[in-house]
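agent: user wants the full assembly modeled, not chains individually. Plan: 1) parse entity lines 2) check alphabet per entity 3) run joint structure prediction 4) return tokens. Steps 1-2 passed, two entities, 425 residues total. Proceeding.
--- entities ---
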Amino acid sequence: MNFKRQLKEGVITNNPILVQQLGMCATMAITTSLFNGVGMGLSVLIILTCCNVAVSAVRKFIPDEIRLAIFVVIIAGFVTIVDLLLQAFIPALSESLGVFIPLIVVNCIIIGRAEAFCQKNPVGASFVDGITQGLGYTVVLVIMCVIRELLGSGRFGGGLIDLAKGITLDGTGTGIQLFNSDYGASILTLPVGGFLTLGFLFAAMQAALKKSAKKKAAAAKTEEKEDEAA
Amino acid sequence: MNKILKLALVLFVICAIVAGILGAVDLITRDRIQAYQTNRTNRARAAVLPVKAAEGEEMYVDIPLDSLSIPATVTANGQDVEILSMARAADGSGHVVEVKFSGAQGNVVMIVGVSNELTCTGISITQHSETPGLGAVAASDTDKGARFRDSFIGVDGSVQLKDIDAMSGATITSRGVTAGTAAAIQFVEAMLNAK
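--- prediction returned ---
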């Protein structure tokens, strides 16, 4: 188990949204305020970690033919638990995310990780994978929320931060208004803005990954030359 | 045959375990969710039809639907709207009606205040699963949401989509809310006529 490597994979080189391109529907739909982004990110992180551990723990007992049905039952169970807990303890978040919490059941990130990682790896590694992939998801959601909220309505931290009350967990925070919302590009707060923001993030990520791959290749080449020269 | 039985057994055991856990979680959260929803219904009623009442006094008197001899489903603007509950303001200033209709993503529950002149005094959406950022704006605390809801104040039972400040990108939700409001007013009218 290599935590550092898994962390780098989850957040950067194998990021669930920007590289694996999974779970994009919810990503584009809910990233309109920081409150939504953080709430959705953490919900997915918790559900993903629980499901990873559960799937990994039962991986030796489940027959191959019905593994997908069992994954779905386990995932649906955890999603319902989180949904009920949110409704009971953070109702504002539950209202704000609406249908997207129950829809985590069919979020490809979770079933994707169950199929690609947890059924082949021990519980410890699956637990770490859930946390790192969940972090990768949350980081991208937060970046998208900040971009769309700031450029779209001139606000930062809507729902979560309030100048008078500090950090609010009931979704009443008004956020920090950096400029008048009339001057914002309100297209960014609409669904089309979600597509645009995500597209630019994809492009930036691909460019960064390519650059780093080129650098690595160049470094390997010079090393080879040095070896030959020696 | 044995193999199929084994598969069924494994699936059954896992489903049973998950169901058991869900039952336990439901037991813990049920009261809190219920209390939150009751509280929200009362706040929503007060928001659409404020009533002057002394502290501790009931502000609304529930009218059981089965005590009325009119159907609890009203078709308004071509959409079926179910009437969930009904209450009279304690000071006689009007009625509050709780209606359910289908929005863009699922059922929407809304409270409509109806004055004695059969006009809308306000609407408040208490339950919905509309798309965040689009239909969900109708229920949100934003300026856009308030503008949408306020455009229903004063309309009567014949309200159409064109009479209100509909939300762009959320036509189905706007249409549903319009039908729900119209149905609530028509229901109160039918009830008063039946008396």
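agent: reporting back. Chain A has one domain: 3-229. The interface with chain B takes residues 29-30, 32, 36, 58, 61-63, 65-66, 69-70, 73-74, 76-77, 80-81, 84-85, 87-89, 91, 95-100, 172, 189-191 of chain A (CB under 8 Å).
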